[in-house]
Amino acid sequence: MITINATVFVKESAVQEYLKLAKQLIDGTRTEGGNLRYDMYQSVEQAGTFMFVEQYVDQAGLDAHHEAVHFTTFLKDVDPLLNGEMDVKVFRELPKDA
Question: Which residues form the ABM domain (predicted)?
Fold first, then answer.
């Protein structure tokens, strides 16, 4: 299993527009066969800071997500709304006996 924590920094003046784009991304991603979880959270301290928690069955599932139209469209459309680069961390599940 692959887990991703992605933090997105949005201009506070663009939060409502961002939320519309993010909803389309979330709805599309949740229909992907290799996706297990796709949730977004908003910081209680900074209204423009969001975190995605994503889980995929395997690398192929993640690769399919990266090629999906809803993902590539989101990246293109969200860029002008950002207040800094996204911070993306990718993790792999360890074996149960590790």
Answer: 2-91
**Which domain, by its residues, includes 70?**
2-92
Closest C-alpha among 44, 48, 4 to residue 22 = 48
Q: Which amino acid is at 3?
A: T
Consecutive H or E run containing 42: strand 35-42
Percent of the chain, pLDDT > 90? 96
- What pLDDT shows up at residue 98? 64
Query: Average per-residue pLDDT in the chain?
Result: 96
Let me know if 79 is exposed, middle or buried by CB neighbors in 10 A (0-12, 13-18, 19+). Answer: exposed
Domain membership flag for residue 36:
yes
Q: What is the reported pTM?
A: 0.91
Q: State the Cα–Cα distance between residues 9 and 95, nearest whole angstrom.
A: 33
The total number of structural domains in the chain stands at: 1
Residue 98 domain-assigned?
no
Strand order in the sheet with 49-56: 35-42, 49-56, 2-9, 87-92
